Amino acid sequence: MMKPNSMAIFTSNDIYPTSADGHLPFKQHSDILYLSGADQEESILVLFPDAHKDSLREVLFLKETNDLIAVWEGAKYTKSQAFDISGIKTVFWLSEFERVFNEMAVKADRIYLNGNEHLRAHIDTELRQDRMNNWIKEHYHTHEFERSQPLLHRVRGTKSELELEVMRKAAEITTKGYKRILKYMKPGVWEHELEAEFMHEFLINRSRGFAYTPIIASGNNANVLHYIENNDKCHDGDLVLFDVGAEYGNYTCDVTRCFPVNGKFTARQAEVYSAVLSVHEGAIELLRPGIMLDDYHKKVGELMTVELLKLGLISDEDVTNEDPAWPAYKKYFMHGTSHYLGLDVHDYGLWTIPVEEGMVFTVEPGIYIPEEGLGIRIEDDIVITKDGHENLTREIPKTLEEIEAFMSR
Ligand code: GLY
Ligand code: MN
Ligand code: MN
Q: Measured from the CA of 335, which atom of ligand 1 is nearest?
């Protein structure tokens, strides 16, 4: 996909300092991970498909390992381990970077730089990749520059079978987590106690933990869309909204369910739940090869409008007078229905091409009624197949009947 005679460069994330000598756990940048498998700090990947020497078509630079590092931090990749992981034959230590990069760059016409072009990213920090981009622009300012992100959004949006296998595993572990916590649901249980049960199940199944900060929101907490305190008591008669997924092999799972604390939905909870479930199921049916994501979201909005009218939460008049830019249903369903899912929770993917086989999306409509202390969302992870879909998270109890039957056991 790169223009002729071009190079591209990708770096690891930094290890982020906290205070004193503390730091956050290392989390690899998903692009270098996707392209090489190298899951280690300070790695650099350079691609140059038209390189004059075959050995310089793809090159990995790694932090040099030594006995001292091995004692304190554990061994880092040897060159042969790096080859096993990445399939890249040419591996240098970082001390060789400037020399080898220069040898490549003087033969290239342009360099693809990587940025973060996610619609919803707001980043104040300078990333390791940003510092690399600045260094390259300073030293190679007569080259042409291109953006890697549009290409990555195209390729990462559609998953390979190998990626799907890992995502199925993340979904399987998430499913086990939900089935575990259902056994702990009872009046008086605390949100953080349920979070702990998820974590137990995830770790014991060799997930590294939560794919994103989990939301465990009882009662009216469910109306705070990004509630992550998880420190309230769950009361008899309330629902608990769980937005929880396991990470596995760096891939994410992203699921939302709402369960009654005492095992039984009230009539009103069941009524609103059924409305959300109906939109959720309708949306899954709409999400097929060929549809554009904008058209899909508009159609889901129409399904939601019908349900909110039936519930009496909005009126025909509200719909007639609605602002097309912020339709009436948005009062009770103010977020999007679907996002790409993969290495990142809000994963890369283009909205300008039709949905195709191998893409993975969440489907997550919700209805939020703060005046009733009721917030309901249902979220599954859907793989697009040639003629429909595969639901990765369907085994997690979802219908009213499934949930009540499971909880009565
Ligand atoms: N858990 C984040 C989301 O549902 O998008
Ligand atoms: Mn979610
Ligand atoms: Mn989601």
A: 5
Are residues 179 and 266 both part of a single domain?
yes
Same domain assignment for residues 253 and 304: yes
Q: Which residues pair with 366 in a beta bridge?
A: 377
Q: What is the mean pLDDT of each run of 10 residues along the chain (409 residues)?
A: 98 96 95 97 98 97 87 87 97 98 98 91 91 98 97 97 98 98 98 98 98 98 96 98 98 98 98 98 98 98 98 98 96 98 97 98 98 97 96 98 97
Catalytically active residues, by annotation = 21, 226, 243, 254, 335, 339, 346, 364, 368, 377, 379
Domain boundary among 117, 140, 156: 156
Same domain, 388 and 279: yes
Ligand 1 atom having least distance to the Cα of 379: 4
Q: pTM for the whole thing?
A: 0.96
Residues of the domain holding 326: 161-408
Dihedral pair phi/psi, residue 302, rounded to 5°: -65, -40
Q: How far apart are CA 107 and CA 53, in angstroms?
A: 10
Number of domains in the chain: 2
CB-defined site of ligand 1, < 6 Å: 212, 243, 254, 339, 345, 364, 379
DSSP-assigned letters across all residues of 84-111: HHH---EEEEGGGHHHHHHHHHTT-SEE
Q: DSSP state, 339?
A: -
The answer to the question of residue 94 being in a domain is: yes
1: in domain: no
**Cα 252 to middle of ligand 1, angstroms:** 11
